[in-house]
Amino acid sequence: MDAAVPAHHRATLLLEAMSLEEKVDLMTGDVLEGVEGFSNAGIDRLGIPPLRMADAGSGLRRPPGYSAATALPSPLAITASWDRDLVDLHGRVLGEECYLLRHNVVLGPNADLARVPWWGRIGESVGEDPYLGAEMTRGAPAAIQRPGVMVTYKHPLVYNQETNRGGGQNSIVDERTIREVYGPPFHAAVQGGAVSMMSSFNRINGVYACENDDMQNKLLRDAYGFAGFLMADYLANHSLSPGNGLDMETPGLPIQPTFYAGNLLWAVQTGSISEAVVDRAVGRILWAMFTTGLFDAPLPDADLPVPYAEHAVIARQIEEAAITLLKNDAGVLPFGADVRSIAVIGADADIPSRLGGASYVTIPADSVGILQGLVNRAPDGVDVRWAPGADRLTSGDGIFVGGLPIPSAFTAERGVHTVYYGSDDLTSEVLGDRVDPDATYNVFGVINEFNDAVRLVVPQGTRSLRAETHLIVPVTGEYSFTLAGWGDARLWFDDVEVAHLDSPGIQGLVAMGPWTLEAGATHTIRLAFRVTEGRVGGLEPGAVQLGWTPPATVVHPDVVAAADLARESDVAVVWVRSRESEQQDSATLTLPRDQDALVRAVAAANPNTVVVLGTGLPALMPWTDDVPAIVHSYFGGQEQGHAVARVLFGDVNPSGKLPYTIARSEDQYDAIGISNPVRDERNLDVHYGEGLDIGYRGFERHGLQPRFAFGHGLSFTRFHYDSITVEPPLSDGTEPIRMRFTLTNVGDRAGAEVAQAYLAVPEGHGEPLKKLVGFEKVPLEPGESRDVEITLDPRDALHPLAYWDTAARLWRTISGTYTVHVGTSSQQLPLHATFRIQAKEGPGVGQGGTAYPYATKAQGEPTFA
């Protein structure tokens, strides 16, 4: 207990005092009811404290009945700020609340990249670029890891989609791509001091991540110098193989026992696993606990007061810096004194858009949607009115491949009468009896029914349901219907069974019609659904949706009402959002609930229409040319409404930049080689065929013009780039390269610009056509100029002047002429300069390259690493 003794010595002393049974206990998680993500029970005999773990996507995951936490902007939003200082602010809030609310392990953040735009956890990612992701990761561990709190980074490695994540998904990716693209953010986490990581669900080149020696030992430990411990995500471990690097197994669920509990002790006692392997794993755990002060700063006996007001201000500041102005024609923004009436359109405009599902969930003490934010901010005399324009989102939106749900406005009940059952027989254990807006049900959503980011979820424990509605045909014409989902579902139309969906393993689809229906006629529709296990270990037990495709002449009455309100107002603000979740990818990049049609209708009614996106995924926005202003606010946390309002009124000059590319169509991703996981669900093999060309790199490689480029983001002022120099002009590749240029605010407002540097390397080595290698966020007053310097360090973890030579297993510097491009996005790069590298040669290096071996240990020299 002497804090002056190095952590690895303290761990050694404690390890020597532990029995084999105690060591195995420390490697095996315990399920605790209530607030914990999971826990490891402490060992009172030796004074080892319990590990009380809390999920943390955008703040701590806290169920109802427990102290609230601050709902911060999502990791993707923080990345969109391109502000390293905000990473520190976010981390300090997270770490402080973790301790005050009596947790000592934060399960998060993520360092995964946004390879797939449909990814259910894209809002939890650090964007699509390895350099940006690494820079927005490096400072987080130290910020979060205050005394008594450790961080657990998720999810090494190449975990980029939810579909089949626990069902045998196999990420097929070459070593060079791992080294140059997906590894750097995790390397940055190690450099930043992360002492724990959570291995992913998927297989990597045929071997599950939790038992993958190449990933866990050779890459994370040997190459990156990771000295801490690795734990499995829930149900992610598939073997008893601690020697391959997995030090701790999370507790199992009733549906799937763990491999360590009950087996590891026996395996050591019988000699099939060496106790030295156990000692190494336990030593890493103890070292991490001592390093982060878990022994020296024990958790309080009760929750301590949280400075909610102070943390809410920080949440708002982060969101303000993240908000990205995608378009602003004709000076619609910011709102001026001539704006006397504002129409706010959007069914969910009263709540922020936040990460939803499983580890994402944070219930804040307070939250403000954009409707209330605009009401609070509008000057006296400005009339702010609201129209929904559509039905609210439910926990099932966005995951189905069928048609759109039937809007409640076209049903006699203004929705669907649904009875929920806790049994499989559709008769007993009634859990709920209510009218839902439509027949869209997601049983996975019940795991997080307390999440107010999605208001409508099925009752906890649902195993089956019956639903009935009466469709009132709006116009005469041909109507098609679809029944989509996984589980067992039957559909009756006017008492005639017209569809039977039996698809327990993957999402199925039954199409019906087209049928000619007469205007004004009423038709009875009945649905029966029951869960049939068989998908992803039961975490995703079932979902079903009745969809329709009506004649093109059908107009939603709520859309008409929204357009009428917009027509009567000086400006219209349309709030559009998506529902995204862990465990489920989105089936489409089209906004749910036909919000695209809503935007078009409002824009046709009012030329001063501003669209505000509250999404994680890069929505397609086919109406871009129809509206003058578009603002991306991501999943903005509890203060999203206040932050958006302050940007719209000009109190804040937006400075966010896109952390990913926004395509014009989903076909563009097909051209790059990125397939929709939901539509390719039968294929467990996921080929990373694009290699190094992730995101904007792939768009450029294939000559594709996106809707909005990576790094794009406008301001209420204008910036001018000038006078670039690069020093030295000739180098041997071992010294830093410094780019200097002048940035001037030539507008009449103070603002901040993110100056971005991209590097085009000599051809012939398979590198991207250009890649981000540096950025600086520069605040400037009107008329102010500043000299900006961006440095390329050849020995940085990202090796900007080298490529990974797989055959030689080393980094090799490329000789030749490099071109530096500097500007405001990956496509707007007004400054260019060149420099030359003549790489040193040496024994075993080969012509034209300099070899760099594996990195050295970055976290001290613990005995166990």
From TrEMBL:
What are the UniProt keywords, alphabetically?
Answer: Hydrolase
According to the entry, every stretch annotated as the PA14 domain falls at 411-564
* A GO molecular-function annotation: hydrolase activity
Q: Write down the superkingdom of origin.
A: Bacteria
Q: Which Pfam families match?
A: Fn3-like, Glyco_hydro_3, Glyco_hydro_3_C, PA14
PROSITE patterns for the chain: PA14
Which InterPro entries does UniProt cross-reference here?
A: Cellulose_deg_GH3 (IPR050288), Fn3-like (IPR026891), GH (IPR017853), Glyco_hydro_3_C (IPR002772), Glyco_hydro_3_C_sf (IPR036881), Glyco_hydro_3_N (IPR001764), Glyco_hydro_3_N_sf (IPR036962), Ig-like_fold (IPR013783)
Q: Specify where the region named Disordered lies, as residue ranges.
A: 846-865
Entry's Gene3D superfamilies?
Galactose-binding domain-like (2.60.120.260), Glycoside hydrolase family 3 C-terminal domain (3.40.50.1700), Glycoside hydrolase, family 3, N-terminal domain (3.20.20.300), Immunoglobulins (2.60.40.10)
Family label? Belongs to the glycosyl hydrolase 3 family.
Which PANTHER family has this protein been placed in?
BETA-GLUCOSIDASE
- What is the name of the protein in this document? Glycoside hydrolase family 3 protein
Which organism is the protein's source? Microbacterium alkaliflavum
The taxonomic lineage of its organism, from the top, reads: Bacteria, Bacillati, Actinomycetota, Actinomycetes, Micrococcales
